[in-house]
Fold each of these.
Amino acid sequence: MAATALVLLGSAAVRAQEGLSSLYGSRNLQYINLRYAPSFTPYDGSGGEMMFGFNSMSSKTDKTSYKYFYGVSLGGGGWWWSEADLPYYGPRDVSSGYIILQLENKLFFSGKGPVRPYVGAAINYGTGALWVGDRLDEEVEEDEESPSGGFDFYGGGVELGVMFVAENDYALTLAAAMDARSVRVGSELKGVYPIMLTVGVCKWLGPIRSP
């Protein structure tokens, strides 16, 4: 189901590119990234995401050595936390699956050469489902008003990365990011701070033109 939804969303994005080409800059980035989170402070656990993104270059940096890109990415992911003390559930092992939408920008120190370092920033929103294990504290009573298992989050983060550009303008992306996310379970909020390690494949494109 999730894979089918991502394929349909990807097809819609391609059609949008064809119909809105006049809005794009003279250079564009299209990428697929895999992100691994080895740490989810303050919880003990890990997670991962797959993101599909499209960024366009600002016309204000057409003639500068540095290049500024902005765009959007969409994907999905999940995490696993050990003995997480989330609202309503008490201390339990918790896992999740979610979809995430992210607005982002990247500032490249140079748009030329085989090695192109950048700094980035993003804001994101995600929604998904929780799966909880048995209660670790048997004295905690079940709450009749506990949520059904859904949750959402919003947040943002900063990223440091580098692209290694090869033939035909394909590039390997390596990056590290720090996010701050506010996870809402029912009416309660919990802050989490994942560290994200990224590896991906990017295509540097020229101007996008309608057929």
Note: The longest strand covers residues 67-86.
Amino acid sequence: MLSYLAICGSDKDATLLTNMLSDDIKWPETYLMKNVDVSFAKEAFEAMTYIAKAFKSEAKSKSSENA
């Protein structure tokens, strides 16, 4: 879309578009940036722990079947 605007627009539009793209990105202030969200990391580690325990118990049950 930006390419279309740059190609099909007037020189004024292309200059305006270039100026807009060259500016730094300014993100709005939000509480999400101030409060650290650790719940995702906690859930990810819990899931990995659960999977590791499941693999471990599966490996034990297969080794006892083969013995």
Note: The two ends are 64 Å apart (CA to CA).
Amino acid sequence: MLIHSRPDEYWANTGGPMSRTRSERISSTLLGLDDGPILCPRTLCLALAFGRKDPVTTVFTLLAQAGFRSPEELRPVFGQGLWPLVCQPNPELQPLDVATAEPREVLRTAFLLGLCTAVRFDPERPVMWTRAGLTRRLELYEMREFYA
């Protein structure tokens, strides 16, 4: 039985008496491996910085200025050749500054973030632009070569 006590801590039932328990910190990841028997390479980094501007209002304004009515209309432009990926939040990522970046690149990043949850990128899901989603800083990893 696995018991979740804190976001970064799990306790497992060893099946023995408490006198034979031990604790061990495990810190390892398969994400980002580009060689070896298990491949999970990082393929994308997605992050936007809006400053004091509202993220949703800002991207919808850019969308309208580019001649699109809905985020779904970006799918033919930016959505070709995509496959499901695993996401990992990384607050250390340097975001694209929306105020100074090329509007097309901001829309591309916003489109891709709109296809993400905190842990999964799904090109089949509807594009969802929320404050939480647009302000995530995510690394995306391929899992096509992973099997365990």
Note: The radius of gyration is 19 Å.
Amino acid sequence: MTKQEIEFLATGVITWVSKSGIECRRHVRRGDRLRVRIAKQADSYELWDGRWSVLMPAKNIRIIDDKP
């Protein structure tokens, strides 16, 4: 799975979880971008930055097509 760039479509606090179960809250603003691995789940995406993951509703992010 390769990393893709996403853009957050809403402002708020999201809770990321590590593999060991530790939680980390991060504030994001609308328009913030992040390169993560993405796994599609029903109506959401699991975002993985290499250490932390979060389940994000599909309506709250936009996947940026970084292909030429």
Note: The CA atoms of residues 15 and 60 lie 14 Å apart.
